[in-house]
Design brief:
Elements: H1 6-11, H2 13-17, H3 30-56, E1 64-66, H4 73-83, H5 93-102, E2 108-114, E3 131-132, E4 142-154, H6 161-164, H7 170-173, E5 188-196, H8 205-220, E6 225-230, H9 235-239, E7 244-248, E8 259-264
Parallel strand pairs: 5-6
Antiparallel strand pairs: 1-2, 2-4, 3-4, 4-5, 6-8, 7-8
Helix pairs in contact: 4-5
The structure holds coenzyme A.
Domain N-acetyltransferase: 63-266
Biased composition (Acidic residues): 21-30
Organism: Coniochaeta pulveracea
């Protein structure tokens, strides 16, 4: 699509200054107007999410996204329990310990700094397990986990029940792989858990973390795709990021009923 002539751009200038205003006069190029509308809708959605999180949190939202380690295990388990209503869909603490020990570089957590004294009774499930921002900080600020992604590598293009298992004797293996669980040579990153703390659902936190994760996996150059399993009601959630639904999965984990979702990493800049 070629850009509109300069005088048309001048005519449309108000649209640049007002997120909601789009000039769709007859002279305007239809494709350009559609693009403007889409961008405006996206900007509005981002602003809505931003304002929603500021309404929900009693402290400033300055997210810090970093890989997780075993020192975050208690928070990861607390978040998983809070986010997944169905216990059969939760990963066990032992599985998290295995994954955060064996391949922590495939995980990502979104944290926020919180001063407990300033919460005035507001509660969040991952507060009691949060680690101090710095030892001896006078205001006792802690880094609270709001969302996580935990994954392993798989050899196939989609996630199987074997990928979701863990070797029984994994502690004795010293990081060596077996036929179940993490496959170090695998080019598919299999997400086993995406969870957001319920109080901030619908505030754009999941979106922020998924986008950062896909970007990071793409930049790493160590994987060809990111795969996950989801129930029907979340298919469109993942499609918005570019995941494709490859159809029903044979995995029986947690009672089955999963869809194979796959995001092919482009390799070049995303
Ligand atoms: C699913 C989950 C991760 C989504 O995280 P979230 O932070 O609430 O979602 P976001 O606010 O980032 O949503 C981003 C967008 O997706 C939309 N969305 C949210 N849930 C959706 C759904 N089920 N289907 C389609 N779109 C959805 C939002 O409306 C939002 O749209 P917008 O950008 O136009 O405002 C979160 O609800 C959660 O932790 N659920 C429980 C655990 C779970 O089911 N994990 C996934 C296992 S596969």
């Amino acid at each position: 699509m070629s850009p509109p002539p300069e005088h048309d751009q001048d005519a449309r200038r108000p649209a640049d200054h007002n997120d909601n205003a789009v000039d769709d006069t007859d002279e305007a190029d239809g494709e350009f107007v559609m693009l403007q509308k889409t961008l405006s809708q996206k900007k509005r959605a981002a602003k809505d999410s931003e304002s929603r999180i500021h309404k929900v949190l009693p402290f400033a939202f300055s997210p810090n996204i970093r890989p997780l380690s075993v020192s975050d295990l208690d928070s990861v388990v607390a978040l998983e329990n809070a986010a997944f209503h169905d216990p059969a869909h939760r990963a066990s603490p032992e599985k998290f310990r295995y994954r955060l020990t064996t391949c922590p570089e495939l995980s990502l957590g979104l944290f926020c700094t919180v001063v407990p004294d300033q919460l005035k009774g507001w509660e969040i499930e991952t507060l009691s397990t949060a680690n101090p921002v710095e030892t001896d900080r006078s205001n006792k600020a802690v880094s609270v986990l709001l969302a996580h992604i935990v994954a392993t590598r798989c050899c196939g293009e989609t996630i199987t029940d074997r990928d979701m298992e863990i070797p029984k004797n994994w502690r004795e293996l010293g990081g060596r792989c077996t036929d179940v669980g993490h496959q170090e040579q695998g080019r598919t990153v299999g997400i086993h858990s995406l969870a957001v703390i319920p109080k901030v659902h619908g505030c754009g936190v999941g979106k922020m973390l998924v986008k950062a994760y896909l970007q990071q996996m793409n930049n790493s150059g160590t994987a060809d795709r990111v795969a996950l399993l989801c129930q029907d009601y979340l298919v469109s959630y993942y499609e918005q990021f570019g995941f494709k639904n490859l159809g029903p999965s044979e995995a029986e984990y947690g009672g089955g009923g999963w869809n194979n979702m796959v995001f092919e990493l482009p390799g070049e800049e995303m």
